[in-house]
Amino acid sequence: MVEAAESAGLKLVSAPFLHKSQNYARTLELWRERFNAAYPVLDHNRYDERFRRMWNFYLAGSQAAFEALNYEVAQIVVEYDATKTTLSRP
Q: On the CB side of 36, how many CA atoms lie within 13 Å of its CA?
């Protein structure tokens, strides 16, 4: 991933930060619990019952995948590398 970013003219600003599978599974579980606890006071024109069901399905499915398949989440920060460009005028 870093090589692809660098070949696109981006440079790595911070090293990858990994979320281990069990930690992220717990994060997804907490998001689902908090969303459902807050749902009664949310704007139901914006977050209707269909959205609630889809969001719960997504969070529960993602949690199950992280638990069963040992997925990990990587976060890297890249920025445009201005030193690799040439300035020109038309």
A: 13
Cα 89 to the chain's mean position, in Å? 39
Condensed to tens digits (0 to 9), the pLDDT of residues 25-77 reads: 999 999 999 999 999 999 999 999 999 999 999 999 999 999 998 888 877 78
Scanning the structure block, which residue is given the tokens 């030193």?
A: 83
Q: What is the pTM of this model?
A: 0.67
Alpha-helical (H) ranges within 39-48 are: none
Total domains in the chain come to: 2
CB 24 within 8 A of CB 66: yes
Q: Quick one: 83 and 61 in the same domain?
A: no
